[in-house]
Amino acid sequence: MSSVPEPSNELLKTAQDVRKASVSLSQTSDSQRQSALLSMADALGARSKEIVNANNEDLERSNNEGLGKALLERLKLDQNKLENSIDGVKKVALLADPLGIRQIKRELDKSLLLERITVPLGVIGVIFEARPDALIQIASLAVRSGNGAILKGGAEASCTNLEIMKALQEGLASSDVPSSALSLLTTRQESLALLKLEGLVDLIIPRGSNELVRFIQDNTRIPVLGHADGICHLYIDSDADLEQSLRVAIDSKTQYPAACNSIETLLIHADIASSFLSIAIPAFQELGVTLRGDPESKSLGIMESANEEDWSTEYLDLILSVKIVRNLSEALEHIRLYGSRHTEAICTTNQSVASTFLRSVDSSGVFHNCSTRFADGFRYGLGAEVGISTQTLPPRGPVGLEGLVTYRYMLVGDGHLASDFGTGKKSFIHKDLPL
Amino acid sequence: MSSVPEPSNELLKTAQDVRKASVSLSQTSDSQRQSALLSMADALGARSKEIVNANNEDLERSNNEGLGKALLERLKLDQNKLENSIDGVKKVALLADPLGIRQIKRELDKSLLLERITVPLGVIGVIFEARPDALIQIASLAVRSGNGAILKGGAEASCTNLEIMKALQEGLASSDVPSSALSLLTTRQESLALLKLEGLVDLIIPRGSNELVRFIQDNTRIPVLGHADGICHLYIDSDADLEQSLRVAIDSKTQYPAACNSIETLLIHADIASSFLSIAIPAFQELGVTLRGDPESKSLGIMESANEEDWSTEYLDLILSVKIVRNLSEALEHIRLYGSRHTEAICTTNQSVASTFLRSVDSSGVFHNCSTRFADGFRYGLGAEVGISTQTLPPRGPVGLEGLVTYRYMLVGDGHLASDFGTGKKSFIHKDLPL
User: Fold this and answer.
1) Which CATH architecture has domain B9-218?
2) What distance in Å separates the CA atoms of residue A313 and residue A310, rounded to the nearest whole number?
3) Which is the most buried residue in A299, A309, A422, B410, by most CB within 10 A?
4) Which residue has the higher pLDDT, A209 or A345?
5) A85-102, pLDDT tens digit by residue?
């Protein structure tokens, strides 16, 4: 990709407007933000014909330009998909308010009270690829959490995105939230320059390929909520229910192979490798999964070889690498060396082995006797997913609304001076009060 | 500064060793980590003569090399300062364990239980300038929170740091924490290459100048906990106790002008500007503070002019810019344009104005009738300060041990498959259980 240009004056103006609107938005009440979302949903409904027409235009143009079938499918926003998206907005309206939660209430001194309260981040920048429904989802999450948003969609969806943004801003216009809290960028230059808006944009959320996420991480000082690789492992212990383990392995690999929480490598304890593979090889074959094994698993019937590179490869496809290990330690060592700290699972009936695995693996998700595919915001019960973060720092793993929220310290005194505490004239009480 | 080199094999080996040790460390109990800290404190005590001697060597060499007086003062670690540092280690041992705290306990389905538990980050990388006592402090915070640490001090303190690290590792050797959990880098090349150890190092903490922090932020994809500018404001409202406001202004500016939480700009409501400045100008003059005013405040007696650049300048010195504003909105607008979202304060007796200010300013600290100098981890009662973050995302502002901690999702099932929920055969319960 090309290098990152400086922001134009026009982009700076847009960002300043969004930031200014975000200050008003941050002061709205829970019910004002809920109403704003319902108003956005209504406006999308009222404009649904225009949106679907615009999407047809995008589809036709992209088809003529030779866009692949899978991407065309992602680009498509028919009446049915749009209605689902509108329902999604209404659901986000019903999520618990993430703002105004008191995390600390502490008396520092007589009449000097410290409180820590959750507040919006400010302005988020979102760069997403073909799917136009992502625009609807992320805009509603932003407004719900009191954040302004600058959004840039893929060129393929440009007509659809314009119509959607019109509707969203119409919705806001009849609410207490300023419609300038949301802004759509339309050129590629702008979306690149967005990465340089440090101080105006507080978080960048890339929704797209790993390549997009990496490029953004490499080209901005603004924090990025995104995920890079998902090299997930399933370890089948010697004490495992082999039938159940096979079902878990199949679900973890095949339920949606393109997802980051699907497994790429199966680690099998040597003691049960022969009996497990005798049922696993035909089962995977039937499902069209290619197995690539280390020498030992090849001697037990796997046809293709896994080489060193396989252990670090996210196939995102019906391919699974297989390795036989002597014991739990060897499995843990393999995960430590090749894992991406996304999600790892163990199948075992031995509680002590399970507990060591759960304690030792430092991935954001560590599972016992269940599919890695549960690593997902909706499945975890977070309500809505802002994205998945493969960073170690919080918010980590699947991130709900809490990823769009930060906190602020408020300190109220009566003329209190730090020097009085420095000289020993006064000393701190530091008494926590009930929240 | 020079560009960032690729890590040497030796550095990679060091980082892998620390990371491996951090996995054992992450599994130690609260009391094991407390004992390790006490053991580190004992070892520092036993080696105190060698440490102070090494420091004298560093001081002598640096003095000969022409190091400035202020930096020599920071470099100095005499018996007294060392004993204070050792006391600090013992205090960190007494801080509440930040690990193993359950944040979520949720039944996703019958026999499918999700828990979210606080865990260490893994490995932190710390780059600090002249002060060798920072090594002691940060190593103890790292071990307390279950993290490995790779540390790089300034070249000036090289002998001192080597002796300190010997003591710390001796202390760990007689504890249950592997001594390889702490490692000291000794060359500049290594400290630069540290910035490239993504996947091995989870957080970089720079302790030094703004320039150091910026350089690091620009040259790593690893998250950085640090602070850039602190452009803090104090606004004196028309309804203010002027005597008290002056005391707060003086404390906020002069108690420690080199600190990031000192004010750089005073905003004064036009209605009280004349009477406030008539007492403030002589008071600041007496304290050696140079005032730089906008045209209106100059007409009220300030001698020097503030130009556009002044509003964005962190003086870190006894200089204060002054601006007269018409009203609260103008003050808020000035803060929005020029502030660094660190800490801002208002002096007013008007509750409604105070409340608008507290709600509208999106800095990490927003204060009413007290000095901005309270924006500090110890003063907030966080126990110990890992650093101050000027990022918007949590951890924000002064950061205690929670900055070294993340969380992990643990999911325990009984052969649960995601496909059963995808096909509608099962549906999620999502029932929160008592923590």
Assistant:
1) 3-Layer(aba) Sandwich (3.40)
2) 5
3) B410
4) A345
5) 999 999 999 999 999 999
- Which residues of B are less than 8 Å from A426 in CB distance? none
Q: Which contiguous run of DSSP H or E holds residue A108?
A: strand A102-109
**What secondary structure does DSSP assign to B270-337, as a single string?**
HHHHHHHHHHHHHHHHHTTPEEEE-HHHHTTT--EEP-GGGGG----SSEEEEEEESSHHHHHHHHHH
Mean predicted lDDT score pLDDT of chain B: 94
ipTM, two decimals: 0.91
Domain span(s) for CATH 3.40.309.10 in chain B: 232-379
3-class SS of residue A379: helix
Q: Residue B251: its chain A contacts at CB < 8 A?
A: 417-419
Confidence of residue B212 (pLDDT cuts 50, 70, 90): confident
What tens digit of pLDDT does each residue of A375-428 get? 999 999 998 888 888 888 999 999 989 889 999 999 999 999 999 998 889 999
Whole-number Å distance between alpha carbons of A385 and A390: 14
Residue A255 corresponds to which amino acid?
Answer: Q
pLDDT at residue B1, as a whole number = 41
Q: Does A409 contact B370 at a Cβ distance shorter than 8 Å?
A: no
Of A20, A26, A408, the CB nearest to B366: A408
Q: What's the pTM?
A: 0.89
Inter-chain contacts counted by CB atoms under 8 A, chains A and B? 222
**Mean pLDDT (whole number) for A236-265:** 96
Report chain A residues whose CB lies below 8 A from the CB of B417: 247-248, 251, 255, 370-371, 373
Contacts of A27 in chain B (CB under 8 A): 359-360
Name the residue in chain B with its Cα closest to that of A243. B415
Token pair in block for residue A118: 């959750």
Interchain pair A417, B203: CB under 8 A: no
DSSP letters of A258-298? TSTTSEEEEEEEHHHHHHHHHHHHHHHHHTTPEEEE-HHHH
- Quick one: pLDDT band at residue B71, thresholds 50, 70, 90? confident
Measured between CB atoms, which of B203, B336, B392 is closest to A121? B392
Shortest CA gap A246–chain B (Å): 9
Enclosing H/E stretch for B266: strand B263-269
pLDDT surpassing 90 at residue B191: no
Q: What is the 3-state secondary structure (H, E, C) of A289-343?
A: CEEEECHHHHHCCCCEECCHHHHHCCCCCCEEEEEEECCHHHHHHHHHHHCCCCE
**Residues B262-293: tens digit of each pLDDT:** 999 999 999 999 999 999 999 999 999 999 99
Find, among B127, B128, B131, B126, the residue nearest to B142 by Cα.
B126
Write the CATH number of the domain with boundaries B232-379.
3.40.309.10
Q: Alpha-carbon distance A381 to A376, whole Å?
A: 9
CA B23/CA A218 separation, integer angstroms = 28
**Amino acid letter, residue A212:** L
In chain B, the residue whose alpha carbon lies closest to the alpha carbon of A262 is B418
According to CATH, where is 3.40.605.10 located in chain B?
A: 9-218
**What pLDDT does B214 receive?**
83
**Cα angle for residues B29, B33, B35 (degrees, 5° grid):** 115
